[in-house]
Amino acid sequence: SAVISQKPSRDICQRGTSLTIQCQVDSQVTMMFWYRQQPGQSLTLIATANQGSEATYESGFVIDKFPISRPNLTFSTLTVSNMSPEDSSIYLCSVDRRGRGKVAPDTQYFGPGTRLTVL
Amino acid sequence: GENVEQHPSTLSVQEGDSAVIKCTYSDSASNYFPWYKQELGKGPQLIIDIRSNVGEKKDQRIAVTLNKTAKHFSLHITETQPEDSAVYFCAARADSGAGSYQLTFGKGTKLSVIP
Questions:
Q1: In terms of Cα–Cα distance, which of B48, B36, B31, B41 is closest to B98?
Q2: Chain Cα centroid distance, residue B110
């Protein structure tokens, strides 16, 4: 398995501000993902973050709103920019333990999540 | 793209009884089916998964069955305990060919085990 930590675990923010969420993994991983889980809902993929390349965003999510960094194989950040109350959600970091150079995905693990409330 | 339907949305069982959660998927290319358990205030935790070359898999009180022809898979929890109370998510992924290699999740089932 993978040990994934996220910071902060929760935050309350004002409308119009930005929050950067950090994700740290205990070992090197090729694929990292960022998900959003709105209250009482399922998980929605925001983007896939590969080290050394631009993040790939899913339909409905744009880089200006959710910039992502992936400086190395154990760390990533997601920024929620210019927040509004509609951004209130749990943001989850996830990793795939596939080997380097392999296309086929492996087991996917999730971090504990960051609970964001925007006032 | 893939679409995963999950039923029921809520399920209450008496402690010691069995619980069954069912999911259907639409993409015949999907060949990997994990189940996640999410407790309140925590991230989803993988509890069991199955690949399409297997029809059933068991891990102690938890089992998953897969019917590729009908495109449905189910989670079975026997001898339920209060600590089984959580939200359970099924997911599907196509791990080969032109698959998206991304998990598509069901909407979740809130399981309550009544002591």
A1: B31
A2: 12
Beta bridge partners of B34: B49
- Smallest Cα–Cα separation from B74: which of B113, B112, B18, B16? B18
Flag if A42 and B101 touch (Cβ within 8 Å).
Answer: no
From CA B40, how far away is CA B111, in angstroms rounded? 12
Cβ contact (<8 Å) for A111 and B95?
Answer: no
The one-digit pLDDT tens for each residue of chain A (119 residues) are: 778 999 999 999 999 999 999 999 998 888 899 999 998 899 999 999 987 788 999 999 999 999 999 999 999 999 999 999 999 999 999 998 766 666 666 789 999 999 999 99
Of B43, B46, B95, the CB nearest to A92: B43
Sign of the dihedral through C-alpha B45, B76, B71, B107: negative
Q: Which 17-76 residues of chain A touch chain B by CB within 8 A?
A: 41-43, 45, 48
Cis peptide before B44 (omega within 30 of 0): no
